[in-house]
Design brief:
- About 30% of the residues lie in helices and about 15% in strands.
- A hairpin with a 2-residue loop joins strand 13 and strand 14.
- Helix 8 packs across helix 27 and helix 17 crosses helix 18.
- It starts with a strand and ends with a strand.
- Bound molecules: iron/sulfur cluster.
- The site of iron/sulfur cluster has 14 residues, from helix 6 and helix 12.
- Iron/sulfur cluster binds next to helix 6 and helix 12.
């Protein structure tokens, strides 16, 4: 520790701290423009506003980049400091339009604040003949750049390159002509910008400004901290609210996101107040929806539930809970179905994305979740990404990965498409879709053959190693290279790299899980980590990146047919006994139906009632024609949602739900962190929060438990769910906690399985042989279709298609096709093509790109026009019952 003095106050600070950091520890605020806690200090100090006086030094120093030294005596507010800061401001204002009255950023501008503080009213160096009329760059769909207002602090450039890991903007020109611009003076839309808006959020003045739908002044808004409602990263953000409208989003420095957001989090909020929102209950009469009161809708639903249950038994009903809704709502949904309806026929869209993770990791490690925390990747030595296009699907984690790579981490990427991470990788294995198990076996074969496994760890902490050795011995790099269509030397290289370091982390997603062998894929990932002892320590582990904002929470809450909250099994009599006592009801111990099984039962005409909360199977599920047939045959369908989705159109009753901005609760992100969701505005129209709707239906059915606030529901969850035992609103007010958090004194768990302790005892090797995908190309359907997500849209696009900027960029479905294939089919970029599988056909637009292999085509599943799930295969993994959304065979014709 070093002893220093700041403004006459003595203090001790860590070696390496800057003066700015030291001053902040005792509450002294020094003005800054270009400073950001996470940016390099080496290239800081550009704006000079943070100058301070150091006794004995010849001039003033920039406090953000100057480290403290023993005995330093610092003055942050002396006359010479104030004079220097005034001069800096006068210089800046001399080249700045003085239009604060009409500037969109008034009230959110540091230049304005500091000029007020230091009494600067005009620029004394102003050249009155100089015109500040450089054209604005409006080319980006979400924000604009006003060079006239840029103060050249360079913060946006450093945020873009150091945090977001883009080089979309830079400093061009020299001296007086220096300015911020996209490379080669191009427009922002021609740059590599991904519209994350992190430059916009960090611009201290009015140079980078969000495009606004409505006018507002910052002083007329209130900030409400909440959790992003899009992906499982769980970024923390502030909603800026004016009246009853959310008008802007700003990032928070949350543990999961380090102050970053992606385009969806930053700019994708316009759906909240969108005119298409459902605002009143609707009941279908004679094929037409008619407005109804809540009382009418609830009575109708309750009567249909009662009559179906009485006539056909509780298992003739089913429900889909929602990964978009809060933990409290998922808990109530499964309580409604289990405790009141009397069936375990309830599931949610985790069945379509990570059911194989839940099944696979629970088998091998005892817990089906990310073992480590989001930001631990920053310190990983090797990052192994398999089946995840992380920079697009979990963009903030993708940025953190790229930050780690810039600092020297090695990157291995296994993916069928040449994604952005592949460009930055040390080894890229562009595998044929559906061959993960073979590839992972090949890596383990090399590791064992070359003696690179962690023998001590295996001996002490695992079981079934001999079976692993026996299974993988045949998967030599040459054999695997043939199956996966990669170079055997790259397999060796990747295996050696992964096994060579202490902190090697695996990240995977739906490229591993959405296969008929998804569970084997997940268990093979786990085998690899156990083999090298790369688990149970910081910056390592097995990390399934969960897709939707609360898919982890929905699973944790027991929105699964075989699991009560906390993965307590319905087949376990002790568990049933515990919940019967807690809820005061009789429960079924029969494992219920999954999403895919519900649709099969529906299509046979055997399901009487389906209640869908916040899901859109008419877009998200495989083989949409089959889904449609099922929904049409089910006697009574209830849909509870915020928009009239493709599924809601087929419902008998629609209940209008509140969006995340209109309710309180919690989401659990991919790293098991339970975080607050806060009500920012009142529910739109007659909407109600999902938890209130569910409680009303329960009450209507005679279960008279009432909750006045979701915090009461969370307290109930904590009382019956061991891993959530220590969670309450109060404890997560400032920062979320990661489960397991068994009691009120527990600080949460940053990473799982420390010291080789697994929930199931020892880590289990569960080797598997490679099995081909269920449907592969043949002469009738010669192309392999794989599906996935893209950066800008989200899931079935119910929210993102209502964001004008996103729609402008990606308005309709498209298919990525290799140039050779396009040439063979006579297709050009932008042409329309008919794509047919054994299940359906669609028309889509061709995007010619060499990101895919010649016989592989890729489509994102977000779009209703040309919805790819008309084509996909509903064949399922027999263990996890997850459909093989990643591989189907299609033919393609020009139209
Ligand atoms: Fe939201 Fe995910 Fe983007 Fe973060 S990375 S802002 S959680 S969509």
């Amino acid at each position: 520790m070093l002893k220093i003095s700041i403004d006459g106050r003595l203090l001790e600070v860590n070696k390496g701290a800057t003066i700015l950091e030291a001053a902040r520890t005792i509450g002294i605020e020094i003005p800054t423009f270009c400073h950001h806690d996470l940016l390099s200090k080496v290239d800081g100090g550009a704006c000079r506003i943070c100058l301070v006086e150091i006794e004995g030094a010849r001039g003033l120093e920039a406090s953000c980049s100057m480290p403290v030294s023993e005995g330093m005596v610092i003055r942050t507010d002396s006359e010479s400091v104030r004079k220097a800061r005034r001069t800096v401001l006068e210089l800046l204002v001399s080249k700045h339009p003085l239009d604060c009255m009409t500037c969109a950023q008034a009230g959110n501008c540091k230049l304005q604040d500091y000029c007020y503080e230091y009494g600067v009213t005009s620029g004394i160096y102003r050249d009155e003949d100089e015109k500040l009329d450089k054209p604005l760059d409006h080319s980006n769909a979400f924000y604009y750049f006003d060079e006239n207002k840029c103060i050249m602090c360079g913060k946006c450039v450093r945020v873009c390159s150091q945090l977001q890991q883009r080089e979309a903007i830079g400093l061009s020109g020299r001296g007086y002509d220096a300015h911020v611009s996209a490379p080669f003076e191009s427009s922002l839309s021609e740059s590599t910008c991904v519209s994350c808006g992190n430059c916009v959020s960090n611009c201290p003045v009015g140079a980078l400004v969000p495009k606004r739908k409505e006018k507002f002044r910052y002083w007329d808004t209130k900030k409400v901290k909440t959790t992003c409602s899009y992906c499982g990263v769980g970024c923390q953000m502030d909603l800026l609210v004016k009246g009853d409208r959310v008008v802007e989003v700003q990032p928070e420095m949350g543990a999961a996101n380090n102050g970053l957001l992606c385009v969806k989090g930053k700019f994708g909020f316009n759906f909240i107040n969108h005119k298409d929102r459902l605002t009143t209950p609707l009941i279908k009469k004679n094929g037409e929806f008619q407005e109804a009161t809540w009382e009418e809708a609830n009575k109708l639903i309750a009567s249909k539930i009662k009559s179906a249950k009485e006539e056909f038994g509780p298992d003739s009903l089913a429900g889909f809970s929602s990964a978009r809704c809060t933990n409290e709502e998922n808990y109530l949904f499964q309580k409604l179905f289990r405790g009141v309806v009397g069936t375990n026929n309830m599931d949610h869209c985790a069945r379509l994305c990570h059911a194989s993770t839940v099944a696979g990791l629970a088998t091998t490690l005892g817990s089906g979740a990310m073992t480590n925390s989001n930001t631990e990747v920053l310190d990983s030595e090797v990052i192994f990404v398999i089946g995840s296009n992380t920079t697009e699907t979990h963009p903030v984690i993708g940025s953190h990965m790229l930050q780690a790579v810039k600092r020297g981490a090695k990157l291995i990427v296994v993916e069928p498409r040449k994604i952005e991470l592949a460009v930055h990788s040390d080894v890229f294995l562009q595998i044929k879709p559906g061959t993960n198990v073979a590839l992972l076996n090949g890596l383990m074969n090399v590791i064992i053959e070359e003696g690179l496994q962690d023998k001590e760890y295996i001996e002490k902490n695992t079981e079934n190693y001999d079976e692993l050795v026996s299974v993988i011995k045949d998967y030599t790099p040459e054999v695997v290279a043939e199956i996966c269509r990669v170079d055997p030397e790259d397999i060796r290289k990747a295996a050696r790299l992964y096994a060579s370091v202490d902190k090697a982390a695996i990240y995977y997603s739906m490229g591993v899980t959405q296969h008929s062998t998804g569970t084997q894929g997940v268990m093979s990932v786990s085998n690899l980590a156990l083999l090298c002892g790369n688990i149970g320590k910081v910056s390592a582990g097995v990390n399934p990146l969960r897709g939707q904002n609360n898919v982890q929470g929905a699973c944790d809450m027991g929105a699964l047919p075989g699991d009560l909250p906390g993965y307590q099994k319905v087949a376990n009599p002790e568990v049933i006994d515990k919940f019967e006592k807690a809820w005061g009801v009789k429960l079924s111990d029969k494992v219920g139906l999954t999403v895919t099984e519900v649709m099969n039962k529906g299509a046979k005409g055997d399901l009487k009632l389906l209640y869908i909360m916040g899901e859109n199977p008419m877009m998200s599920d495989p083989d949409i024609n089959h889904v449609k047939e099922a929904l049409e045959k089910i006697d009574f369908v209830v849909v509870q949602d915020i928009f009239l989705t493709e599924t809601a159109e087929l419902a008998d009753v629609i209940l209008p739900a509140a969006s995340f901005a209109e309710k309180d609760g919690t989401f659990t992100n991919s790293e098991r962190r339970i975080q607050r969701v806060r009500k920012a505005i009142e529910p739109i129209g007659d909407c109600k929060a999902d938890w209130e709707i569910l409680m009303d239906i329960m009450n209507e059915l005679g279960y008279d438990k009432e909750y006045s606030n979701p915090s009461e529901i969370l307290d109930e969850i904590a009382s019956v769910t061991p891993s959530y035992g220590g969670i309450s609103f109060e404890r997560i007010e400032e920062e979320g906690l990661q489960w397991p958090c068994p009691d009120k004194n527990h600080a949460g768990t940053k990473f799982l399985h420390e010291g080789g302790k697994f929930t199931r005892g020892k880590g289990l090797f569960k080797p598997a042989d490679y099995i081909k995908s269920a449907e592969l190309p043949d002469k009738d359907y010669p192309y392999l279709l794989t599906t996935g997500r893209m950066l800008y849209h989200y899931h079935t696009a119910t929210m993102t298609k209502r964001v004008p900027g996103i729609n402008r960029l990606f308005p309709h479905s498209y298919m990525e096709m290799h140039p050779t294939t396009a040439n063979r089919l006579g297709l050009l970029n932008g042409d329309k093509a008919k794509v047919t599988s054994r299940r359906g056909e669609i028309i889509t637009t061709i995007t010619v790109t060499d990101i895919v292999d010649e016989d592989v085509v890729f489509m994102p599943f977000h779009f209703a026009d040309g919805a790819v799930n008309y084509l996909t295969n509903s064949v399922i993994d027999p263990i996890a019952k997850i459909p093989e959304l990643k591989v189907s065979a299609v033919k393609i014709e020009k139209v």
